Amino acid sequence: MSAEVERIRIPGLDREISRIGLGTWAMGGWMWGGSDEADAVASVERAFEMGINLVDTAPVYGFGRAEEIVGHALRRIGHRQELVIATKVGLEWNARGEIRRNSRPERIRQEVEESLRRLGVDVIDLYQVHWPDPSTPVESTAETLLRLREEGKIRAIGVSNYSVAQMERWRQAAPLHTAQPPYNLFEREAEREILPYCREHGVATLTYGVLARGLLTGKFTAGTTFPEGDLRRQDPKFQGERFRHYLEAVDRLRPLAERHGRSLAQLAARWALQQPGVQVSLWGVRRPAQVEEVAGVWGWSLDAGELAEIERILAESIPEPVGPEFMAPPEA
Ligand code: NAP
């Protein structure tokens, strides 16, 4: 399982990035029932040792905590020039932990300084608008990120959770290097419009949630419960009859992974990386042992027959698929 890490070049960056990016949402603790800081820092270090040089974070993950953890790990790792740090902008929170979308220029200007400080870097490699803000014109947000790029505070420009129409408006005002939609075996909406649009217009994709919040590791059973504050308590995939359908799909997919001597999580990531229009998949972790599994993503592939078998299993097992819409922050 020591195959070479797959790397790729994406627009807006002068270095190659690993096709699995390290996700840091759970490291912030918020919405994931808390987290252990030492484990989180060690996870980023371990990922770098394993050749994963892309780290995806956001200010809202733990309200600054995940960015600070990444900053801490960066100082321990050194090698700043080999690492690609992607963070986000455009969600604000109050003392009660309520979040709201805000992509106005003044908010972005404030956030970029805070992110640079928490990360301890002088430039952010990839800066992504986290969620579209309906109360701010897309063009004004795009122009603000373009200014930040001209000022040398950020390198590549990206968006996340944007529709095709919003990306189209963006591209009239500023370059768009990347898009970050949700995408995994169980959440396929991006296939309809987002991935084809990105392919056509040279926008690289960093698709998120490759494990469907851990469901695609195969570690859950119908009796699994989640701690207070863990988003999976609200996730419609993890409720009642529907949860059992997803678990059935997991059970039926597992032998396919085993045929290749791989785990289900490795199959899920391999599948995602083989889909047209996917450049990078983001795999979230909270402890170093979870990173180790990424090593088995490289150096093999699923053939056409297996891809068709996967489609059959999904169609037969999950009569009522549901997406990740429950995670969307309120629009106003
Ligand atoms: P994910 O990658 O589908 O699942 C991550 C979770 O699965 C981990 O936190 C861990 O949770 C479990 N896990 C991971 N590796 C494991 C292993 N080897 N063995 C067992 N369990 C394992 O979900 P995600 O973190 O939501 O998505 C990935 C990244 O995408 C995020 O971290 C974030 O950077 C980004 N993201 C972006 C957006 C956006 O709006 N732009 C939204 C969501 C995510 P437990 O240990 O708690 O089970």
Order of helices and strands: EEEHHEHEEEHEHEHEHEHHEHH
- Fraction of residues in helix: 25-40%
- Structure classification: alpha/beta
Low-confidence stretches: none
Distance between the termini: 47 Å
Mean pLDDT: 97
* Share of residues in strands: 5-15%
Each distinct ligand: NADP nicotinamide-adenine-dinucleotide phosphate
- Work out the helix count: 11
Taken from the alpha-carbon principal axes, the silhouette is: globular
Strand order of the largest sheet: 3-4-5-8-9-10-11-12
Q: Please outline the major beta sheet.
A: 8 strands, parallel, barrel
- Count of β-strands: 12
Cα-atom radius of gyration: 19 Å
Question: Your description of this structure?
Answer:
With 332 residues, this protein is of the alpha/beta class. 38% of the residues lie in helices and 14% in strands. It contains eleven helices and twelve strands. It has helices spanning 25-28, 37-49, 65-77, 105-119, 138-150, 164-173, 194-201, 240-259, 264-274, 288-292, 304-317, and strands at residues 7-8, 17-18, 20-23, 54-56, 84-89, 91-93, 99-101, 124-129, 154-160, 178-180, 204-207, 280-284. The protein has an eight-stranded parallel beta barrel with strand order 3-4-5-8-9-10-11-12, surrounded by five helices. The protein has a two-stranded antiparallel ribbon with strand order 1-2. The chain has a two-stranded antiparallel sheet with strand order 6-7. Strand 10, helix 7 (194-201) and strand 11 form a beta-alpha-beta unit. Helix 8 (240-259) runs antiparallel to helix 11. The relative contact order is 0.15. The model has no long low-confidence stretch (mean pLDDT 97). Bound molecules: NADP nicotinamide-adenine-dinucleotide phosphate. Residues 23-26, 32, 56, 130, 160-161, 180, 208-214, 217, 219, 265, 282-286, 290, 293 line the site of NADP nicotinamide-adenine-dinucleotide phosphate. The site of NADP nicotinamide-adenine-dinucleotide phosphate has 27 residues, from helix 1 and strand 12.
